[in-house]
Amino acid sequence: MTATLEPTAPRPGGGGDLHTKLSSNQLPRLLPWGVFVAALAIVLATVIANALGSDLPTTRIVLLVWAVQFLVPLLSAFVEGRRKAVDRLVTTFVVSAFTLALLPLGSIIYTVLDNGLPVLSGEFFTYSMRNVVGEGGGIYHAIVGTLLITGAAAVISVPIGLFTAIYVVEYGEGTRMARWIRFLVDVMTGIPSIVAGLFAYALFVLFFGEGVRMGIGGSVALSVLMIPVVVRSCEEMLKLVPNELREASYALGVPKWRTIAKVVVPTALAGIVTGITLAIARVIGETAPLLIIAGATDSVNFNLFGDRMATLPVFAYTSIRNPGVPPEFSLDRAWGAALVLLIIVMLLNLVARLVSFLFSPKGEK
């Protein structure tokens, strides 16, 4: 004999069906996003209007629009209750903080594009500043110097950083030497760029004397800044490789060095390449160390081991620092160099994403 459970009547004050309780008294789903998009549109319209010559109070409008965002949590308190209102209030704060963090980035990109795009031309990319006074000239010599110096810095930094990370993770885990290496890498991460330039200059003075200026010195200075970033990124990627893969390789009788070369590094290759690319993007815009050891020149120089070599950051700095007469043309070239440098960094990040996608296991991002 089986007993059947009779449906019980709703409790007094229970509010009826649970589904009805959860789905009733809710604001429209798209209301918060609609308010946010409308507020963003108002701010963008104000910025564009001021750029076209209007005189609108941008700060007051932004503060007013930001205050309007809190109408949604206020309405939620009356319609949905305290719990949902608190959730919407925290969401509003998070979205506001994210938008506030994007404002400087958007301002930088807009300013560089606005001032740099009119300068870009075929002549700007194919001519140097040799024998150019006033209008004309370009950044060909600075592009060549930037690519050569940064490429040499990567050649120096990547093997040192990768092998150091392999030692710390695979051979020295738990040892005193590994702890000291991690400590020194953390210290090097915070070294000011000017100190790296002074170190490279002092090193080359020992061999070439006072006043030495050469591109390879800039590569050494950049490698001092780049190595700790490569070490830390590669170390974290190697730690993500499951120990089961190592143990399976050891069980087959594969030596440790071959396991690292054939199993561990290929598994972490996507993250390693991404970390290296981000390290290159971090140092490619450094100005102080290159100004000290690589110097500045108006001519094209393909020899890293001979004489001064121009780079995009130093070119932009010297164009602003010594604009000449009239200064307009030099200032425009500085904005153009800044835009090209920004484009190079963006391309490096795109390459990192592409490599990460292609080399990740099963095509995962």
Q: What's the topology here?
A:
Blueprint: H1 18-23, H2 31-51, H3 58-68, H4 71-79, H5 82-116, H6 122-126, H7 140-171, H8 176-189, H9 193-208, H10 215-239, H11 243-251, H12 256-267, H13 269-283, H14 288-293, H15 312-321, H16 328-359
Helix pairs in contact: 2-3, 4-5, 5-16, 7-8, 7-10, 7-13, 7-15, 8-10, 9-10, 10-13, 11-12, 13-16, 15-16
Give a structural overview:
With 365 residues, the protein is mainly α. Helices cover 71% and strands 0% of the residues. The termini are far apart.
Q: Architecture of the largest domain, according to CATH?
A: Orthogonal Bundle
Helix % is over 70%
- The total of helices stands at 16
Q: Quick one: how many beta strands?
A: 0
Class by alpha and beta content: mainly alpha
Shape: flat
What is the first-to-last residue Cα distance? Answer: 58 Å
Order of helices and strands: HHHHHHHHHHHHHHHH
